[in-house]
């Protein structure tokens, strides 16, 4: 039965009420103060102070200071008038209960609005941050595209310059070949003139001249054929690559950690605590931690979280070395908003999930996620980062 506090003192002005409530040993951590428009309550075990105010106050601008075994309230009046008394008179128990319920309901609605406003602000902040990141990424993408375009233009110019140089070299080679052929034809013409001067113009001479012209034509065609290279023949080359397998280096091997994890798993399966008085009333399958774990999983799937926790509790009492029991119980505590217990079970599961190997990587990820979720819902972001 709480002790009702009645030896308080109060003073007032037209705009405020100053109330002093003596409570022996009161502290900020242990005192429960609730202030509404027409209702004020202080709960500090074993003391209880409760007053139904004479007129409405502005509870948002009102203040309370705790220290030296006293709570001092500064209550801001909504209307600048002098009160005849601190509390309203003639209030029966039924009316008191209605005032209490109305004040609590209003406080809950205000808290809900504050949470929704905070969530809306957080969403706006996230949206703004996302827009900023998208803008930065868009600028980076444009810079990269501009660099690519500049490199493409540069490569195109270099290719055009190389083609122009190749065309110029081909033109020079063709000119040199034509000059060489012209010089050879000129030498042939000079030889023909010398032959005409040396031999008479008879039939024999005509035959020789005809043969000479034929030989000249053959020689000229031969020169033309020699000056133009024949096209190269095409072919295909098949390349086969020998497959290479690179074994894991000894310094990067996880064999020792994996063997230690398998040894811990085998030892955990052998561990069984049978010194429990309640075991005599249980069925044979209910004494098996694995059966209890499966039972808890089925209860969790049907959203019967309390029953699932009971199943996991008994399984842990039978065998406290199985990390999945703590991990699943942490999930139940998250559903029931038992956030501190969820953090404890997740941390215990991480202690048992050592050393970290690929076989327990999935379970470790779940433990980190559930512990981080609990920290975030408690708004303990720094602790979450420290525990990583």
UniProtKB/TrEMBL annotation:
GO biological process: determination of left/right symmetry; epithelial cilium movement involved in extracellular fluid movement; heart development; inner dynein arm assembly; nervous system development; outer dynein arm assembly
Record-annotated CS domain positions: 3-87
SUPFAM superfamilies in the cross-refs: HSP20-like chaperones (SSF49764), TPR-like (SSF48452)
CDD domains: p23_DYX1C1_like (cd06469)
Any Gene Ontology CC annotation: neuron projection
Superkingdom of the source species: Eukaryota
Major subcellular location class: other
Biased composition (Basic and acidic residues): 161-192
Keyword vocabulary terms for this entry: Cell projection, Cytoplasm, Neurogenesis, Nucleus, Repeat, TPR repeat
Cleaved signal peptide residues: none
Renumbered residue ranges of the record's region Disordered: 161-222
Keyword Cytoplasm included in the entry's annotation: yes
InterPro entries attached to this UniProt entry: CS_dom, CS_DYX1C1, Dynein_assembly_factor_4, HSP20-like_chaperone, TPR-like_helical_dom_sf, TPR_rpt
Subcellular location: Cell projection, Neuron projection; Dynein axonemal particle; Nucleus
Any single Pfam family the record assigns to this protein: CS
PANTHER family cross-referenced by the UniProt entry: DYNEIN ASSEMBLY FACTOR 4, AXONEMAL (PTHR46492), DYNEIN AXONEMAL ASSEMBLY FACTOR 4 (PTHR46492:SF1)
Name the UniProt record assigns to this protein: Dynein axonemal assembly factor 4
Source species taxonomy: Eukaryota, Metazoa, Chordata, Craniata, Vertebrata
């Amino acid at each position: 039965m709480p002790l009702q506090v009645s030896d308080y003192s109060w003073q007032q002005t037209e705009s405020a009420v100053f109330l002093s409530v003596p409570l022996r040993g009161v502290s900020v951590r242990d005192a429960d103060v609730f202030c509404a428009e027409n209702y004020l309550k202080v709960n500090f075990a074993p003391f209880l102070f409760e007053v139904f105010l004479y007129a409405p106050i502005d509870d948002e601008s009102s203040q309370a200071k705790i220290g030296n075994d006293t709570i001092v309230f500064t209550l801001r009046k909504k209307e600048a008038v002098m009160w005849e008394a601190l509390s309203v008179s003639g209030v029966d128990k039924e009316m008191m209960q209605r005032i209490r319920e109305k004040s609590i309901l209003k406080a809950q609605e205000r808290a809900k609005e504050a949470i929704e406003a905070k969530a809306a602000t957080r969403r706006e902040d996230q949206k703004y941050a996302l827009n900023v990141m998208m803008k930065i990424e868009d600028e980076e993408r444009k810079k990269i595209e501009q660099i690519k375009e500049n490199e493409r233009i540069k490569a195109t110019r270099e290719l055009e310059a190389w083609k122009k140089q190749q065309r110029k070299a081909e033109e020079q080679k063709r000119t040199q070949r034509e000059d060489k052929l012209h010089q050879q034809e000129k030498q042939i013409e000079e030889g023909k003139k010398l032959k005409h001067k040396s031999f008479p113009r008879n039939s024999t001479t005509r035959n020789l001249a005809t043969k000479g012209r034929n030989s000249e034509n053959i020689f000229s065609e031969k020169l033309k054929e020699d000056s133009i290279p024949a096209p190269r023949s095409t072919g295909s080359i098949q390349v086969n690559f020998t497959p290479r397998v690179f074994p894991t280096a000894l310094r990067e091997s996880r064999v020792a950690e994996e063997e230690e994890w398998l040894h811990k798993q085998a030892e955990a399966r052998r561990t069984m605590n049978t010194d429990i008085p309640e075991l005599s009333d249980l069925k044979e399958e209910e004494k098996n931690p694995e059966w209890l774990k499966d039972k808890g999983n089925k209860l969790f799937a049907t959203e019967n979280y309390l029953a699932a926790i009971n199943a996991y509790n008994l399984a842990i009492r039978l065998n406290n070395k199985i990390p999945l029991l703590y991990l699943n119980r942490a999930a139940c505590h998250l559903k029931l908003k038992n956030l501190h217990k969820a953090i404890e079970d997740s941390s215990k599961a991480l202690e048992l999930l050592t050393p970290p190997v690929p076989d327990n990587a999935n379970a470790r990820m779940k433990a980190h996620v559930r512990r981080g979720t609990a920290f975030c819902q408690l708004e303990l972001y720094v602790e979450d980062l420290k525990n990583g």
